[in-house]
Amino acid sequence: MAWKTLDDVDLQDKTVLVRVDINVPMDNGTVTDATRIEKIVPTVRDIVQAGGKPVLLAHFGRPKGKVVEEMSLKPLVPALEKALGLRVVFGKDSVGEYARAAIAEAGEGEVVLLENTRFHAGEEQNDTELARNFAALGDLYVNDAFSAAHRAHASTEGVAHLLPSVAGRLMEAELKALEAALGAPTRPVVAVVGGAKVSTKLDLLGNLVEKVDHLVIGGGMANTFLVAQGIEVGKSLAERDMADTAREILAKAQKAGCQVILPIDVVVAREFKAGAASETVTAEACPADAMILDAGPESVAHIAMVFAQAKTLIWNGPLGAFEIEPFNAATNAAAAKAAELTEAGQLISVAGGGDTVAALNAAGAADRFTYISTAGGAFLEWMEGKTLPGVAALG
Q: What is the pLDDT of residue 395?
């Protein structure tokens, strides 16, 4: 789909409402991880340099439409000022007189941060009146919060219909990366989908088998597919009641010409703990008293071969119990191969989802992927082929 960016609008002397996601971890009023704040810096600086006044709209936590002091955005001001190198004026409300006063107080080259949008019950209800009150504060709307774009809220979707609306730099980068991975990818395309349960990723698997050439299934999900093929998996995590569904997905993949890749060999253990005694066996030979906790070296070699032949990779979920050594080996090795191919210019690699980002960071591979999305729910819904309200409103 087509969307406009900051390059398509005149920002000179404009008050620019910018929806951002700065829902950062805090400890005793101090930001402990400023990653999300750092990611909005290019958008805010570009608006300031173009002569506009950025007014940040954001949520924090789940106050459920009430003012909850511990969920105020005010403690984020020092971290924002440090990241932006600019003065930040705080508004005690996200609409009305306090918001207008903060906007009026901010001078040229300064930024406004308005209070938590979710202090208003109408935010999550996408209330028309609240959206109008947001729109009344500015001349333009910029959405730079892809991670909240799957929610049709007043500050992510409602206001976008009331003002000229464009994507910020972070949103622009995310949309371009995802378009390159799934919209109009360079083929062959391989997807890695891992995680515990098939039941949580049915829409994702159903969409991917019709869009990718190879689908690597890992983690506990792979066990369910092995069970669906009549393979015993001992005490492994598996959704036996999802066997019929797994077979339907395999049939759909075959019809679409998508090759589903399941483990050839597996690493099994009797205990689920770090350093537990383990052994590698063929996928068909899991002992009755053991559990599968990772894919084996033959499986990794096969995955690496598929990666080497591919042009585009999209990754969501680990291949094994990556949090616990030695069951992170398959994820680490596959991630290292993907990173190596990306650095060599042979592969476009896009990854996202909470566990995925953690796993790729732990593997030391995240920085070498083409793009890592920190937008969990929105990234998944995009992969599932769903329309994201916050993105559609920019069209």
A: 67
